TrEMBL record:
InterPro entries: O-antigen_ligase-rel_domated, TPR-like_helical_dom_sf, TPR_rpt, WaaL-like
SUPFAM superfamilies: TPR-like (SSF48452)
Keyword Transmembrane on entry: yes
Predominant subcellular localization, coarse grouping: membrane
UniProt keyword list: Ligase, Membrane, TPR repeat, Transmembrane, Transmembrane helix
Phylogenetic classification of the source organism: Bacteria, Pseudomonadati, Thermodesulfobacteriota, Desulfobacteria, Desulfobacterales
PANTHER family attached to this UniProt entry: LIPOPOLYSACCHARIDE BIOSYNTHESIS PROTEIN PA4999-RELATED, TEICHURONIC ACID BIOSYNTHESIS PROTEIN TUAE
Keyword Chaperone among record annotations: no
Name of the featured protein: Lipid A core-O-antigen ligase-like enyme
Organism: Desulfobacter postgatei 2ac9
SMART domains: TPR
Subcellular location: Membrane
Pfam families listed in its UniProt record: TPR_16 (PF13432), Wzy_C (PF04932)
Amino acid sequence: MKTARFSIFFLIFFTPLAFGTKAPWSYGIMEGMIGAGLFFFALAVIKKQVQPVEVPALVPLLIFLVYILFQVVPLPPGLVKFVSPHAYAIHSRAYELFDAQGWMTLSIHPHSTVFQFFRYASYTAFYLLTIQVLKEKGALQSIALSIAAYGGLLALSSILQLYLTEDMALWFWYTPENSMVMGPYSNHNHYAGLMEMIFPLVLGLFFFYRPRIGETSFIRGIIEILNQEKANIHILIGTSALLVIVSIFVSLSRGAIISTCLALSVFSFLLVRRKTNRRNSLLIIGVIMAVALAMGWFGWDQVFERFAKMKNPEGVLYNTRLEFWKDSFQIIKDFFLTGAGFGGFVHIYPPYKSLIDNRVLNYAHNDYIQLLVEGGIIGFSIIAVFMAVFFFKSFKAFSKRRDAFCVYLYMGSITGMVSILFHSFTDFNLHIGANGLWFAFLAGLAVSAANTNIRGEHSPTRLVSVEGIFKRRVFTGVSMGFVVAVALFLASHLGGAFYLAHIKDKVITSQTSRAELDAIQSIARTASAFDPLLSRSRYFEAVSAIRKNNMDQAELLFRTAIHLAPLNSWYLMRFGRFAARNGQAEKAETAFSLAVQYRPTLPAYTLQYGTWLLSTDRIDQGLALLKTTLELDDEYSDTVIRTLLVANVDHERILTAIPRAPGPMFAYADFLYTVGRQSQGQEIYREMLAILGELDNPKISNYWRVYRFFIRQKNIKDAIAALEKAETAIPGYPEFKIELGDLYRRQGILFKAREKYEQALYVDPNNKKARQRLEKMDSQSTEG
């Protein structure tokens, strides 16, 4: 029992400090400690040292876990086609690529789904364990006070870290670029998510430890408060609560700030509902005023500025999350019933992605949308039933409580849960290991607070004990089964990750030695033995087999890798190159087209497919894909142009393949100029003036580029035309006018030169260059 209690105390404090628990090692510690706690508790039950109690709303959670496992069970193709046509289509394309047939899973990435099963199973076990361990008043009181101290110290450390360090989590760990670090988290939203769960708990304790005073004057009331035993605790907990909520505001997490304010409203509602002392209303007002004053010291401007960024330059509320959600709704429509498989969002999202960038989106930034994407309406409904049953049963028990400690602790726990549920509309806090664990902990704490007997009644809890040999055996059997499953999973998952870490950054080329290839293949094979669902190790084996000229083995390994991750465009593209090299044109085309279909916004894939189509004399299809490549990223301009020239595509058709955009057009024009086809290059540069005129926000540098090209050609007429169009398009930029005035002056058209210098001064009265030009013209006119 002591070990089970220790595991709870350890994990609620450790998991946030483990940088939020996002890495395999921290997940391993979390799941291992939960398994150990449950094991020792089950052992105590077997020895009859402790009596287990029934857990509210446990059945929906167990059904949910069974449902996740169902997603990774191989099923007949006909059944998958009936239940989830799009999952069937994805798996069947992978099978057809290798002329094979086989059973399929509802999940489009089984490895991720298995990982998510153990994550949710761990949360369920922690919820169960929390209720079993904290059913005694001593444990409940000690953990509540520990949280108050922990929250205040973590908030103070995080605030100091924010202002004294730069891009460092927990004072020493450098985070990736563009991170908004706060405390031990690399993402400020997730830190704020933890704190918005802790704050209501500490606030509840602050109310409970409020010193009681009678009707007296203000000064005498202060003196009376300070003379009471609870005064020190009350002040310390109040300070902790203030630090926690200030750190939320300082983190600049808009979702957390809004959620915390809503949570305060929920807490106030519960106070009114219970008809507590009216001085509590004054305390709430005091908390709000204290926060306002504290934030005044840190500066409200940064908070207002953060919220102002929600609007685009046109003044319309906009956020990229809206694009993520819009794309996700199409996935929900296609996988409505059973979802794409838990953990599958990062794999299923790219084919539906509308934003053109290279960003990999791991989460939907909305936990409810992601639940529908991955679990479908079935998974969403099961969780909705759990939440409904949980809130109903716990609130029913809470309504009968009169003990102040239980009342305030329940209010704090439920308010913390509600706060993170609000925040989940705009973020993915519940997919962060530590925050998901804390949510499960608050649920267990709420049940314990609503049922624990504080005043020493004959039973420590009002929860029903698990009676009967059969029920006890089922309880211990399920618990031990979970422990064994976790142990096997951790050995498999961490073992596979450990060996894969040795080769994951390896680049296998024709220069890789045979000995190194053998070593890579051996390590990859060991990783696959530990974790059979790990597709990346099979991929490394396949590439090593190609370099060793073992083509049959390579194809077999590619088949396994693609079956395990059918939406992985990199595997498909690499297999397409393998098939093309071995004369399997039909397989190559299928693989290339699937790679582009599954990652339509990645220019490297459209370039590869387009190049291959050109090599097979399908010029029109190839040109269309190369044009798409340049539309996605004009950095590929030189590569695409070289590809077109190597394929002997004529000038007119090349022009059809190049988008009417500055990057590709300039690149092609410069190439024509360097190979002696100056007249064609000049035509493109002339056309560029028309293209630039069509753009909403043309770049100044593009006009300079056109102008300088004509100057190098000593084509003054077109150079003047370029500058005239430039000053018309960007009238507020004086340099165009000055340069145009210089050209007119060199041509002897002095009145036009003067006119342009004067226009430049009108735009920029302090422009020294224009003023000097005019003064020089005036002095020359006087001398003449």
